[in-house]
Fold this sequence. Notes:
The chain is of the alpha/beta class. It has 26 helices and 9 strands.
Amino acid sequence: MLILLSSLGFLTFFAGRLRIKLSIAMYLHVALTVLWLYAAGLAGLLRPGAIISVLAGMGLLAYTLIWLFRRRAEFLPLKWSAGKLSQLLYLVPFVFFVSLVPFDFKLTGWDEFSFWGLGAKVIHATHSLYLKDSPIVDIFKAYPPAQQLFQYYFLFLGPWSESGLLSAQIIFMLAALACAIGAFHARASVLEVLTFFSACAIPYFFGFDYKHIFVDPLLALVFAASVALAATAKGLRGSLLVAVSLAVLVLMKQIGLILAMLVIAIHFFSSVLQTADIGVAARFKRAIAQVIPGCLATLLTFASWQWYSKSIGAGLTVSMPKLSSLFQDPLLGRIGKTGLEFIQRFQAENFGLYPGGWKIVLLMSPLSVMLWLMALSAICILISRRYEILPRIAAFSLLSAGAIAYLLFLLLSYLLFFSEYEGIRLASFERYAGTYFLAWALVVFGAYSGAVDTFKIKWLRPVLAIPILAGLLCLPLGLFAPPVASPQIEKVLEQRERIDALAELVKKHAAKGDKVYFIDQNSTGFEKFMFSYSVSPLETQWWCWSVGEKYNKDDVWTCKEDLRKLLDGYSFVVLYNADEQFWGSNSDLFVPDARGRTTGVFSVARKDGQLVLTQVQ
């Protein structure tokens, strides 16, 4: 309730006192909250910073209410236009999607366990940014924390809650989505709000939804909001809004820096090409002045996070291969396999939408999506007002070129940053490609709606608005009914029940700083990362959850290591799936009564140089 009242204070101040549109004010509140908590976290004052933020919102609420009371005649709803009144409807999707989150909601996604959920849980437990001893692998500690910071703000006054975690994610997503649409509308209108409603369906086309906490759709929405603000920015206020959004974009994920550079380019050329009674040289000077805040915000957030990451020993060192090695095995073979897989996936119809009651399946390949978005971008340009045509050409041309550069960067990443196992399989390619396409699609949708809203031939506006309203038909009907778990989700939830029980047993006996070793023979690690999340903030091992001989030629997870050596430094070992191979090599470490069991929790001790494993109940 305090968070709600505080947020109301910020929104009423931004919208009422500063005259910022509600669609942008919601995103501005979220963005400033993230940046404030980030600064507080760098100073080691995350919890005090969150408390100050809540109190500031309460103070702004009191101030704004007093200010509005003194000017109450000016703000009587009876005197508002239909456009202003419709702005209140922006809150409907927030209430709708959050209300659909079950109170007992559980995370079920692989990456939610390996980092996105784990990172948020660690920050919530420690009231701090990641530390040197945080139970997160160093590679993930280098991931910027914007998403987790807002989730922390939403949850820090109460106990850990996965339903609250998802609710915070939804609020962040919808706030950015509202900004991406609203920024293209100079004035509040009914069409603007209806466009926002329809746009809620677009993430589904690219395989995203409002039931997971993956950062990729959130990154896409923040990127879209940044582009929308940059393409429509005017004056100092517009430049500051872009700067705030760019700072958050950089703190979303490492790729945010590259996307931020594209946003700065869009801001610069959109400013240069804006109609004005000044010369070309003066336009360039104006554009340079307008992008300076965004450049500074980008550099400051990037440099500060790089500094903090190094201070806790986080990050990934990438060694560039020599030019000669590109033409020799094994890298040459990897390049060939990765390139062929990229070409096949680029043409495979892996994006699709299942419109609610129409039962129509629309499938597209990444190539088709790019071509369609280019064509739709051209339509947006054609129906734009005369003075907007050149800025829109610049924005959409840069987005088109950026898509090509982004995909090439993805291909390079699979060769340099991913393991060979993931690289040649283009792991999560559709999710990463869909991130850019989703942002581009939302910018097109918002720009089209804004152009329709001000189209010079008024009687054609309802006709041109039909594609926007058709988006309402594409919202999956499943949203309007209680969620029904699929057999796959039911299986994951059953696994979570078993995993959570083992984790709680460990926590019952563990002390602060204890480390836990998890065994799950012949598996890809899904249950291991699920356990790491459940047992957090206790630390688990990163790899080697399966030990002994490899089970097949594609097995990259099983380690042929002595369990005695692997357990060095660990206080507990948890057996989740111990098979014959495991017991054939390690039965002598356990008491006779425990041998042959599939599961169990054992404390680890050493007496007279001998390893002693004792089962705990």
